[in-house]
Amino acid sequence: MPKTTFDTNNLQTTQQPEENPVINYERVWYRVLRYWYVVVASLLIALSAAYVYNRYATRIYPLAASIIIKESEEAGQSAELLYNNPLVNAYRNFLNEPYIIRSFPLIQQVVDSLGLTVSYYGEGRVKSSELYDKPPVKITGNKQGNRYLTGKFTFMFLEGNRFKLTREVNENDTFSLQAEFIGQFNDTLEIDGFKLYVEPKFVQENKDRDIYIQFSNGFALAKSYASRLQVEWAEEGASVVNLSINGPTATKELDFLRTLIYFYARQDQEKKKETARNSKEFIDTQLSIIADSMLIIEKQLEAFKDKNVVTNLDEKARQILLEIEKLEKEKTAYLVKQTYYDYVEDYLNDPQRVEQIVLPSAVGIDDPVLVGMVQQLAELQVQARSLAVNTSTENPLALNLRKQIQSLQKGILESITNLRATDKIAIHQLEKQIDLYERQLRVLPRAERQYVTIQRTYRLGESLYNFLSQKRSEAAISEASTVSDVVTVNEPYRAGGPISPKVRFNYAIALFLGLVIPIGFFVLKEMFNTRVQSKDDIEKATNIPILGVIGHNPNPDRMVVSNKPKSSLAEAFRSLRSNLNYFVQKDRFVLMLTSSISGEGKSFTALNLANIFALSGKNTIILGADMRKPRIFQELDLSNAVGLSTYLSGRAEIVDIIQKTRIDNLYVISSGPVPPNPGELILRPEFRKLVEHLKQDFDIVLIDTPPIGIVADALEITNFADHVLFITRQNYTPLDALKNLEQQVRIGKLAHVSIVFNDIYKFGPGYGYGYGYGYGYGYGYGYGYYGRKKKGGGYYEDQ
Questions:
Q1: Which of 139, 498, 733, 735 is most buried, judged by most C-beta within 10 A?
Q2: Does the pTM of the predicted model rise above 0.85?
Q3: N-term to C-term CA, the chain
Q4: Which DSSP string do the residues of 450-511 spell out, in sequence order?
Q5: What pairing do the DSSP bridges indicate for beta strands 700-704 and 589-595?
Q6: Are 409 and 380 in contact (CB under 8 A)?
Q7: How far apart are the C-alpha atoms of 428 and 443, rounded to whole Å?
Q8: Helix/strand/coil for 168
């Protein structure tokens, strides 16, 4: 709260002025109402800008779709029950699926299949729009290997079956390219080594339209789609994935989502089929080798039968043969495993092999550790290809996949080493048992022994062939019956209206800015205001009391009291005279009038206030102490040949410088000719003598002094005054001048001071006045509003 003090000079309770005045919001609001047309114009401009933006901005639509990724048990249940084939039960890491869906190779495949690298646009009066639904032509062949044709071409229909493409060349291009190409529909057109095939589509709809075609780089376009595509799980623990993308052409983005789901599902299905195909190829290789061996054995058996008559074996020999065959089957199973181990070691040690690894289950290996690691490796290989891990990009997910693959390869090789050692022991035991039975066969006749050996070898190959044939059939069935685990839940659809531009939001922002900008301007103007606007400003800047207020008069007549005695301005001066009685309780006194700068109306106030005193019967004299700018004599049509300066310089007596005016009881001592040293003249004893003389001869002595903020003359004259009137002017007097005045009063340089608030022409809330003045006044000297004279009005004049 402001601190309360007691002013001994003015005998009234005062408050300490505020150091940091707050914004006068009443005054701001008044300005808003007064300049309502500025606010309305600002609103219209802002709302018009919002309308234009909403009308011509590119619409962005949200598109969405949902898919479900079945779990392995659910997807492979039917095939596994029918065939007991674990080939369809591949390992899947669901956490990687969103990254696979957004992988560049998959998205680039979608972009290329839809032909999105070629865009067709029709130019309008304000903006261009894409002609995706009804393109004028369809162009293919803009890709060769990993190269894409890029650039912008204008398209024009020519007579007959012809068209023209014109390349738009940038000014910064340093190379020279062919600019124009003319071709025929349904034929090839070579541009920069690309053989484009141009097929007409919606010709009539676009014949009269300006068209341009944009050829884009597929890699960059895939990157753009990957950045815009959102892939998220519907909720934690669910296998439903939500896909969403935003774009300016709804049908184009719908086609993108639909094709993306198709290729993703096909990739999932191909991944499963690849496992079965690789198993078939591996088994076919083994079957080919076994078939060749059996063919040789069959020839040996036929040759033996031709030379020998042994066709049947006795009971003991048959039993021995059956036991040996049983042991040989077991040994063959281990040998098949050894063959698979050799295959895996060669596969892992050859970095050039890119096909998917054959699963152990394809050859009957059921070791859970090895089967699990190989299945996981196969899944990681698919992910690696989907994410293009073999490129130079240092994707964190790609780096992690590399580390997982390397770790799995090391684990698989260690597992194979352990399995080899275990199988070697088992094979050794089988060989010992086989050797035992073979010793029993040695007692048989030679021909019978040979027959048993050939027969055993043949049956062993036949058994191995049947085993591998069964596994191949299982792999073929798996390949034929494999379906994708990806199923569409919600077909791609438009998920609402345009999300951009936000029409209502833009209008709200325009409305807000349309109001804030003008109001903010008024607030800033108030914040940075440095001139006195109202009584509140004076009261906040100083504790010095306000004696009275005087209105504004645009008329050239300055002697308002004598010429218009019934005007409100004349009443204001009468009020000023009455208020002086509370500060100067004397019948005869000296009143000094000063201001901070020139042009605040102190001389005008002195003239009319003296007129009021004279009309009341007081013998009044005006002493023009402003010897630098003598003006009072002009208003009263008096001479300035002699005056204060001539008296103080010793060239005239007191009686010579006192002039009678046309107004009764009013006398004037003009400033006299401008001296070279007015400050020194004021300090002379003659000035004191003059004041004392005037106090004896006149009831009221008004001293019109120079501005106290410019020269020191006024400070010297205060010693002779009973009261000082400090004149301020609305929207003219600097606020710092009041603070400086307050400081001088505090340190004792000035005393018995009150303020007259002059030239009030702004009324309303925040200004402290709810009334006006019917006539007002003007003063024809000094600086007026912003230092200029109103032409025709007569008092705002350059000085």
A1: 733
A2: no
A3: 44
A4: HHHHHHHHHHHHHHHHHHHHHHHHHHHHHHHH---SEEEEEEEEE-SS--BS-HHHHHHHHH
A5: parallel
A6: no
A7: 24
A8: coil
